[in-house]
Amino acid sequence: MIYQLEDEKLSKRKNFLSKKKSLEDLKRNICSNKKILNQLEKDISSLQANAVDYEQLKINLKRIKEKRKRQQKVLTDLKLETNVKKLLFEKISKQYEELYNQNRSKLYDRIQKILLENYFLETKIKLQNETLEINTLEFNKWKECVNPEENEVINKALVGMFQKFEVLKKEVEDLIDKNEQNKENYEAMMHLNYFSNDDLDILKRENI
C-alpha cells in the first residue's frame, strides 16, 4: 500500500514536472511567437509602405515611358525632317550642277565672243586713231604751206576733209562707246561667278 502511494506520488510528481515543463515551453513559445508576431507586424507595415512606394514607382515608370514615347516620336519626326531636307538639298544641288554645266559652255562662248569683239574693236580704234593722227598731220602741213582763202579748190578740198574728219571722229567716238559698253557687259558677267579668276585669265590670254 505504501509502495502504491509512493508510486502515485511519484507519478503525480512526474506529471507535474512534465506539465510544468510543458507550461514553460508554452510560455517560451508564446514569448517567441509574440516576437515573431511583432516582427510580422513590422514586416506588414514595411510591406504596406513598400506597396505604396511600388504604386508610386509604377506611376513614375508609366510617366517615364510616356515621356520617352513622346521623345521618340519627336526624334523620329526630326530624323524624317532631316532626311527630307537632305534629299531636297541633294536634288537642288544636282539641279544647280546640271544648270551650271549647261550654262557654262554658253557663258564661256559668250565671254570668248565679247573678248574677241573687244580685241577687234581695240584694234580698229587703234587703226582709226593712227589714221586720225596722220590726217591731222597732213592737215597741219597743208595749213603751213597753203592759204585756203586764196585758193577756192583747196578750200573746197579742205571743207571735204573737215567733213571726213568729223565723220571719222564720230566713228572713233562710237567705237570707244561700244568698247566701254562691252567692257561693262564683260565685267557684269564676271560677277556671275560661273568662272574662277584663273579661268577668266585663261580666256583673256586665249583671245589676245
UniProtKB/TrEMBL annotation:
Record-linked InterPro entries: GAS8, GAS8_dom
Growth arrest-specific protein domain: residues covered: 1-153
UniProt keyword list: Coiled coil
Coiled coil, from the record: 37-81
GO biological processes: cell motility
Record's GO cellular component terms: Golgi apparatus; microtubule; motile cilium
Gene Ontology terms for molecular function: microtubule binding; small GTPase binding
Pfam family membership, one: GAS
Top-rank lineage group of the source organism: Eukaryota
Protein name: GAS8-like protein, putative
Organism whose genome encodes this protein: Plasmodium vinckei petteri
